[in-house]
Specification:
Length: 759
């Protein structure tokens, strides 16, 4: 008992009263802090903040405009769009969109105009005379002969139209939600065959609503799973309430700390309650089980607590260290939400450990029901099964080692099949409307994913309006359209080309004006350099320019191949001493995460192994024990990587977390097993008897915590976010493989080290 009480406090009752009182008061404080907790989805937080390209992107959007501040509205008429009633409704809804605050620009098929130049002044001619059906035939001919309109405002099948909305930049979460609600109300006023809408303001709202729902759902499911397993283990309401109170208070305190420090709940931190439930419950179960096993043996209460500290407390502290190391390895990530997830989960795990050795003894001191004592007797079938299993392991050591080797070799083959990829809205289920709408634009239009090219005058002197430089820019624009299947394209070169084709009867749709015609058009554009539409394409000094387009969400893997082809084309057809092109944009920066992700994962995983290896060596003074400790916990990760390769599960930000976190969690059972075996050997037991006692003492808690781990991570598999689903699935499989490795492989490796005995 005294082992858990500070020496300056003489009375046990006083100490435990102080502990309970403090827990109650601080918990109330955290409850009030929860009202300050906010949910947030800032996709820009997932930009790699160590990348110099982030600086380029920040400067780029300050110079021109934000590339993701837009909405696309797709309006269907399955019988064909050239219908006056339909087009008038499209015009009406477009006008209502234009009246909404925070909408800066509306480009609709009914208000689009083609700019031409007759040598005197610019003339704007409407693309679609929607109020005059007699002109539909001529209008449709012009539309479907235009490279710029098909795939942007009109699809090839002619069964829908697209309306482009430019929103104000840097809208707050409140303003974005308000704008999304207004637009949805306007959409609800009209009856169309179908209507699709995408954009940051819509996606953000969907993500946050799902985030709030899943945050509560994960918490409730984790509670349910833990209650079920605790009931089967302890057969008592007390055996459920006390362990639950520890982890629930741990979660409450962690969320309170987050709120106090101004940390919002994001996509990563939505999994935090489940993580604390899982890690915290492991400490409680080991403490709880040992306490009642000793009571069942007849051990005096005064001697139980020092015994728990020696036989369970120190191993549990080591598991705390390895688990925290696993989560803190996420600090190697270049993505802030991932680093924050590692930090706050570590805080929660430490809180759970402290409460397990302060609040839990206090609760047991004030009330310990006798029913729980009888549950932990040794005369049951579990020990008979464990005894038989242990002897089977010793008789089949070569078979176990051989099977492990075969599985590892097969897994190594699967590892080479892993692909690193990222698709923007892949996280969302296909059942979610915005995902369906996103797919609609990918299928019928060029897509929604922005592709931005920053263009610079290399010497800082030659203006980009230079005829030869502009011709080179146009070649690049043409290549982008062909290579990526891009539309919604804007650039100074494309603007020049469009005015040229609208002004002259040019048979070749891809022709660029000759120098004389070009100079006339550029004079017009330079005279209107203060026009907003020109300012977002070219700076006033004409030393920086922009080429912007929309492409389908092909994924970072495929996009990187197209990007490589683009940069090679630029080197081939442009004068790189005068022109410089750089790919940028929000989507590009998200893709850049993948290039850092593997390095971050290797660094974090290496950090975890190094720290745990050094800790093991300091404890056992044996490199062979380090190997024995590492192997049963690395092999499950090799196997899970092989499963990912064979199953086609791609490596991305969320799935890369599995390795460091799972390694930290998987080592817990190994620590308890080795620590218990060492204690039994120190008691002077024979090797075989020590193994048997270790199985009996640690087997049940290990099995129980494994089921709790599985249940907790399985709750993540109901998520509508694909990354959360795969995270839960992969860690769950890893935990299963890890416990099998501890049950079957670890005894064989330990037996090889300590030496075989005839007995």
């Amino acid at each position: 008992m005294c082992g858990l009480i500070p020496p300056f406090i003489k009375s046990q009752k006083t100490y435990y009263t102080v502990v309970v009182s403090f827990v109650i008061l601080f918990s109330l404080f955290c409850v009030f802090q929860l009202f300050q907790l906010r949910f947030n989805y800032d996709f820009e937080a997932f930009f790699p903040n160590e990348d110099h390209e982030l600086e380029l992107y920040d400067q780029y959007r300050k110079t021109f405009e934000y590339d993701n501040e837009f909405c696309l509205i797709g309006i269907e008429r399955k019988a064909g769009i050239f219908d006056s009633v339909f087009l008038k409704k499209v015009d009406s809804i477009s006008r209502l969109f234009a009246e909404v605050p925070d909408i800066e620009k509306v480009n609709s098929p009914t208000n689009l105009k083609l700019i031409s130049y007759n040598g005197l002044s610019p003339v704007a001619e409407r693309v679609l005379h929607f109020e005059n059906p007699s002109l539909y035939k001529d209008d449709s001919t012009k539309i479907y002969n235009s490279d710029n309109l098909i795939g942007s405002f009109f699809p090839e099948d002619g069964k829908s139209v697209s309306v482009f909305l430019r929103t104000k930049e840097r809208l707050t979460k409140t303003a974005s939600d308000s704008l999304a609600n207004r637009l949805e109300r306007i959409i609800g006023q009209f009856q169309f065959d179908d209507i699709h809408y995408v954009g940051r303001i819509f996606a953000q709202n969907v993500y946050l609503n799902n985030l709030k729902t899943e945050f509560v759902l994960f918490l409730l499911l984790s509670l349910t799973v833990v209650v079920i397993f605790l009931w089967f283990s302890f057969k008592s309401v007390y055996g459920i309430i006390v362990p639950l109170s520890i982890v629930v208070i741990s979660i409450l305190w962690t969320l309170g700390v987050m709120a106090l420090l101004g940390k919002d709940v994001d996509l990563m931190c939505a999994m935090l309650p489940t993580m604390i439930f899982i890690a915290g419950m492991s400490d409680v179960v080991h403490f709880f089980s040992k306490y009642f096993e000793e009571l069942a043996k007849g051990t005096e209460r005064g001697k139980i607590y020092p015994l728990i500290l020696k036989e369970v407390g120190f191993p549990t502290f080591l598991t705390l260290v390895t688990t925290v190391v696993g989560f803190l390895s996420l600090l190697f990530s270049s993505i802030k939400p991932i680093r924050d997830f590692g930090i706050y989960t570590s805080i929660g795990v430490v809180i759970a450990f402290i409460l397990s050795y302060t609040l839990l003894p206090a609760l047991l001191y004030f009330f310990t029901p006798k029913k729980l004592v009888s549950v932990h007797g040794h005369n049951n079938k579990t020990y008979a099964v464990m005894r038989s299993g242990l002897f089977w392991i010793f008789r089949n050591q070569k078979f176990i080692l051989g099977l492990t080797s075969v599985v590892v070799i097969l897994s190594a083959i699967g590892i080479y099949k892993i692909r690193v990829n990222n698709i923007l809205l892949e996280d969302l289920s296909d059942k979610v409307k915005i995902k369906q709408d996103f797919n609609f634009f990918d299928k019928h239009y060029s897509g929604v994913r922005p592709l931005e090219l920053a263009i610079f005058s290399k010497d800082g002197k030659t203006p980009l309006w230079n005829y030869e430089l502009m011709r080179q820019i146009y070649r690049v624009d043409t290549f982008v359209r062909k290579e990526y299947g891009a539309c919604f394209s804007v650039s100074p070169a494309l603007l020049v080309k469009t005015i040229y084709h609208n002004s002259y009867d040019v048979p070749d749709k891809k022709a660029f004006p000759d120098k004389e015609e070009y100079n006339e058009i550029v004079k017009l554009l330079q005279a209107n350099r203060n026009n907003r539409d020109i300012q977002v394409l070219m700076t006033k000094d004409a030393l920086k320019s922009r080429s912007s387009t929309k492409i389908r969400d092909m994924g970072s893997l495929e996009a990187s191949k197209h990007n490589a082809a683009l940069m090679q084309f630029i080197k081939t057809v442009t004068d790189t001493s005068q022109l410089e092109f750089k790919i940028t944009g929000a989507a590009h920066l998200i893709d850049r995460n993948n290039e850092y992700m593997v390095d971050n994962m290797i660094q974090g995983f290496g950090f975890s192994i190094l720290v745990i290896a050094l800790l093991t060596y300091l404890l056992h003074r044996s490199w062979r024990m380090v190997l024995v400790f590492i192997l049963p916990n690395v092999i499950p990760l090799i196997i899970i990587a092989g499963i990912m390769g064979f199953a086609g599960i791609e490596l991305k930000a969320a799935t890369s977390l599995v390795f460091s976190i799972a390694f930290g969690i998987a080592t817990d059972d190994t620590i308890h097993f080795i620590s218990r075996l060492k204690i039994e050997l120190e008691y002077g037991k024979s090797l075989l008897y020590a193994f048997k006692r270790t199985y009996f003492e640690t087997g049940k808690p290990i099995i129980l915590t494994t089921f709790i781990l599985m249940g907790g991570f399985m709750s993540l598999m109901i998520s509508d976010f694909q990354s959360t689903f795969y995270f839960g699935f992969l860690v769950c499989i890893t935990v299963i493989i890890a416990v099998l490795a501890d049950i079957f492989l670890l005894p064989v490796l330990l037996f090889l080290i300590y030496g075989k005995t005839k007995k």
